[in-house]
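Good morning C.,

I know you're traveling, so I'll keep this short. The sequence:
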Amino acid sequence: MGGGAYLGHLFWHRQVPSLPLQVLVIRWEELWENLPEMEALKRKLNKKLESYHREFSDLEIQLRNENQGLAESQKSVNFKDSSQTKIFADRQKKFSEKVMKTQQEAERRQKELQEHHEESMRILREKINEAIKKVAHKHEADLVISQNQTSYYDPKLDITNEVLSLLKTEKES
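The tokens, ready to paste straight into the viewer:
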């Protein structure tokens, strides 16, 4: 008996479940689009972004005006006079520090907003997965796959609306 016969023999005796596999399908895109929490999250994010945009637009205008003022005052500085040169250099330094602080604050807020969004999405995904598990358990399903992972499925296997309904009722209670 050669090695090939032995390997074939091993594969024939693997344990394979004899029961049929119960598979359900979820349409993720539709689920995300119709989820009330997703709309609320988008509104909240847009509101914060608009607020930051207004605030930083105002700061940008102030910095531009201040920069223009520095450029104008530079024309009248007598750089042979060390005291005038020092005063002007101090103003430039303070302006540069102000620009840097504004940039750092913008980056900090953007990072904070991104982290908040990611955490909200993580929590939302957990809620969705729990709802999918409940619906799958109710149908005694072994597997739930995304519509995008299939070439064809019978529409009766689609649990998207049932999951959406469960999420909406859980939100209301």
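Safe travels,
E.
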